[in-house]
Amino acid sequence: MKKFLLFLLLSLLIVFISTTIFLSTIGYETNKFNNFLEQKLSRNIPYLKIKLENIKVKLDLKKVTFFITTPNPDIKFYGSQIKFKKINAYINFKSLLINEPKIDSVYIVSKNIDIKQAKDFVKYIKPSNSKKFFLNNINKGNFNFNLQFTFKDNKIKNYELDGFVKDFEANFKSYVFKDGSFVYNIGKNSGEMQNIRGNLSNIIINSGFIKYDITNSLEISGALDSEAKLNESQTERLLSKDMKKEIKVDNFMGKISSVFDIKFDKTLKLKDYNFKATGNLKNLLINFKKPKKIAFIDEVLEVLNFEKSNFTVDFSKKNNLSLDISGMFNINNKTFQKYDLKHISKKNYRKISLNANIDSKVDIPILNFQKENKVLNIQTNLEISKKQINLLKFLLKEGKSKIQIDQMILNKNRLMKFNKILVKTFNNDNINNDFIISFGKDIKISGTKYDATNLTKLLDTNNNSNFFKNVNKQILVNLNEIKTDNTNSLFDLNLIGKLEKGKLVKIVSKGEFSKNKYLEISLKEDKVSKKKLLEVYSDLPKPLLSNYSFFKGLSGGKLLLNSSYDLKSSNSKLIIENFKVKNAPGLVQLLSLADFGGMTDALSGEGLSFDKLEIIMEKNDKILNLKELYAIGPSISILMEGYVDSKTGLVSLRGTMVPAKTLNKFLSKVPFLGDILIPKEIGEGLFGISFKMKGPPGKIKTSVNPIKTLTPRFIQKALGSK
Question: Is residue 50 part of a domain?
Answer without folding.
Answer: yes
